[in-house]
Amino acid sequence: MNQIWIIAKRELRSFFDSLIAYILIVLFLGFSGLFTWLIGNSVFYVNQASMQVFFGVSFWSLFLFIPALTMRSIAEENRSGTIELLLTKPVTDWQLVTGKFLSVFLLIAISLALTLPYYLTLWKLGPVDHGAVWTGYLGLLLMSAVYASIGIFASSISQNQIVAFLLSLLIGIFFHMIFGALAATSTGFTGKVLSYLSMQTHFDSVSRGVIDSKDIVYFLSLVFLGLAGAEIAVAKRNIVEK
Predict the structure, then answer these.
(1) Are 66 and 100 in contact (CB under 8 A)?
(2) Using CA atoms, how far apart are residues 119 and 116, in angstroms rounded to an integer?
(3) pTM surpassing 0.85?
(4) Cβ neighbours of residue 81 under 8 Å, at least 6 residues apart?
(5) CA-CA distance, 143 to 162, in Å (whole number)?
(6) Torsional class of 84: left (φ above 0), alpha (ψ -120 to 50), beta (otherwise)
(7) Which of 151, 168, 170, 185 is 20–30 Å from 62 (CA)?
(8) Residue 133, exposed/middle/buried by CB under 10 A (0-12, 13-18, 19+)?
């Protein structure tokens, strides 16, 4: 665990040193703030003290921002050859992958924490369903963990950051849109399977305040599969190079 935390801190520091973290935070706060308070179906338009508008905007913005964060995590190490140097230290493939995943997850958590003033402002404006707010944040964190793991996997199988970005989006879009769209046009067992695979199904369930074990299993399973795939990719690359 100590090695994972060391890698996570190193990566998180690199995000802030390269201004990537600041750019992400500013874009995320600006984008979510505009649509939550001023544009479209904003809080004032729907005339309700509800965070659902923010959660809906964040559901899409994080889907787009996370691949940009993860695309360089391992792809850059592969391209520059520094991954071999890193793995000569007492660090396992799993610790490397998990540490990089944790750094991205922490940056997303920091970004979401900076939106808590939205919640406090709404609380002042009217009655707020506090349980739904906190489960909505939980849903965003779980969704972000899934896409971060997918992004780490995409980065582990490429040496090009742009390829990793596009691959992460391509894999993610199946869970974010395609499975849900197919479920809407399918019936029976196939429809149930496609609905279960849809990110929207589980995110909506959690953000409404319903924490079901099947939703938690869904999120954690995808996170594990993404990280396990990344570990296998890193291990294979090391074997080939040896």
Answers:
(1) no
(2) 5
(3) yes
(4) none
(5) 22
(6) alpha
(7) 185
(8) buried
Whether 147 has a pLDDT exceeding 90, the answer reads yes
> Could you give the C-alpha distances from 14 to 17, 24, 124, 131, 196, in angstroms and in order?
5, 13, 37, 35, 36
- What local confidence, expressed as pLDDT, does residue 121 receive? 82
In 10 A of CB 12, how many CB atoms? 20
The Cα 164–Cα 159 span in angstroms is: 8
pLDDT grade, residue 51 (50/70/90)?
confident
Handedness of CA 50, 54, 56, 59 (dihedral sign): negative
Q: Supply the DSSP string of 39-56, one letter for each residue.
A: SSS-HHHHTS--SHHHHH
CA angle 31, 51, 36 (to 5 degrees): 30
Q: And the tokens for 104?
A: 């991205």
Place of tokens 């399977």: 193
What is residue 142's predicted lDDT score, i.e. its pLDDT?
Answer: 96
Structural domain that includes position 179: 2-241
Distance CA 181, CA 198 (A): 9
Q: How far is CA 118 from the centre of its chain?
A: 21
Total tally of structural domains belonging to the chain:
1
For the stretch 209-240, pLDDT in tens is 888 899 999 999 999 999 999 999 888 765 54
**Which has the closest alpha carbon to 230: 149, 166, 169, 147?**
149
Q: Determine the distance from the C-alpha atom of residue 199 to the mean position of all C-alpha atoms in its chain, rounded to a whole number.
A: 12
The one-letter amino acid at 178: I
Distance CA 50, CA 118 (A): 10
